[in-house]
């Protein structure tokens, strides 16, 4: 049973468009939700994160929207660029002692120039 | 910038072989993790640890042992390697004062 689910599995957009990546989770004990980005042949790296105390988190062109009641998140990328082409992982964890970080299966984004 | 170093970067072994993957972090982080990444399965947590001598079981532990010998060093052991363990393995670490997880560059393991 996948605890963190992402959709779509893959996505192609045109340069300048807004990309929306979706994520949902099951476990009510999760309280921290980072998004990691992985370029081909590279390691995942933290892009942006949100906790339960917030409904929205912005960092430049990247924004997380969080619907706690429905346990859904979305990552919006405005003015998408070819350099944004990568796989995006939504993850969830409890910030207590265990710090177990669970990843979704990822969304592969291709931005066409 | 947090540093997580994995070795070897590539490894080929035979079915039934014995393999040890090594990871060292020099960030004074308490938490260390071993993940495997496979197409269609994303990143799956094998084992993790929150200090020297501590070991926690992840979501896909079967066929793997791990040992955290020091705060810096975390090892993943495959004692009877099988072709199903062919994968890209990532080690990662995070500190008590931060929730960000830093990944190593990965070890590509092939079991033939």
Folded structure, characterized:
The complex is a heterodimer of chains A (113) and B (112). With 113 residues, chain A is mainly beta. Chain A has a single domain (4-112), classed as Sandwich (Immunoglobulin-like). Helix content of chain A is 0%, strand content 56%. Chain A has strands at residues 4-7, 10-14, 19-25, 32-38, 45-51, 56-59, 62-67, 72-77, 86-93, 101-103, 107-112. In chain A, strands 2, 4, 5, 9, 10 and 11 form a six-stranded mixed β-sheet that branches. In chain A, strands 1-3-8-7-6 form a five-stranded antiparallel β-sheet, with no helix packed on it. Chain A is globular, with a radius of gyration of 14 Å. The N and C termini of chain A lie far apart (37 Å). With 112 residues, chain B is mainly beta. Chain B has one domain (4-102): Immunoglobulin-like. Helix content of chain B is 0%, strand content 52%. Chain B contains no helices and eleven strands. In chain B, the strands form two sheets. In chain B, strands 2, 4, 5, 6, 9, 10 and 11 form a seven-stranded mixed β-sheet that branches. In chain B, a hairpin with a 7-residue loop joins strand 9 (87-94) and strand 10 (102-103). Chain B is globular, with a radius of gyration of 13 Å. The termini of chain B are far apart. The mean pLDDT of chain B is 94. The A-B interface holds A 32, 34, 36, 42-46, 49, 89, 93, 95, 97-106 and B 31, 33, 35, 40-45, 48, 50, 56, 58-59, 90, 94, 99-101, 103-106.
Task: Describe the structure concisely for a colleague.
With 113 residues, chain A is mainly beta.
- How would you characterize the largest beta sheet of chain A? 6 strands, mixed
Overall SS class of chain A: mainly beta
Low-confidence stretches of chain B: none
Oligomer: heterodimer
- Classified in CATH, the superfamily of chain A is Immunoglobulins
What is the string of helix and strand elements of chain B? EEEEEEEEEEE
CATH topology of chain B: Immunoglobulin-like
Measured by residues with Cβ under 8 Å of the partner chain's Cβ, the largest interface is: A-B, 22 and 23 residues
> How many individual helices of chain B?
0
Order of helices and strands of chain A: EEEEEEEEEEE
């Amino acid at each position: 049973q996948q605890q963190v689910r992402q959709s779509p599995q893959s996505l192609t957009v045109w340069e300048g468009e807004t990309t929306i990546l979706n994520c949902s989770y099951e476990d009510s004990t999760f309280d921290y939700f980072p998004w990691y980005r992985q370029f081909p042949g590279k390691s995942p790296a933290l892009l942006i994160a949100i906790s339960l105390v917030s409904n929205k988190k912005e960092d430049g062109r990247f924004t997380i929207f969080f619907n706690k009641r429905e346990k859904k998140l979305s990552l919006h990328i405005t003015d998408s660029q070819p350099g944004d082409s990568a796989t995006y992982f939504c993850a969830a964890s409890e910030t207590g002692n265990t710090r177990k970080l669970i990843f979704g299966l990822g969304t592969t984004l291709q931005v066409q120039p | 910038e947090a540093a997580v170093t994995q070795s070897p970067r590539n490894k080929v072994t035979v079915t039934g072989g014995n393999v040890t993957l090594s990871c060292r972090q020099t960030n004074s982080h308490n938490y260390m993790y071993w993940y495997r990444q496979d197409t269609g399965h994303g990143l799956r947590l094998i084992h993790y640890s929150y200090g020297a001598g501590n070991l926690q079981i992840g979501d896909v532990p079967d066929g793997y042992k791990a040992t955290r010998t020091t705060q810096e060093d975390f090892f993943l052991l495959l004692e009877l390697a099988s072709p199903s363990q062919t994968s890209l393995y990532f080690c990662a670490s995070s500190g008590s004062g931060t929730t960000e997880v830093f990944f190593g560059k990965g070890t590509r393991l092939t079991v033939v």
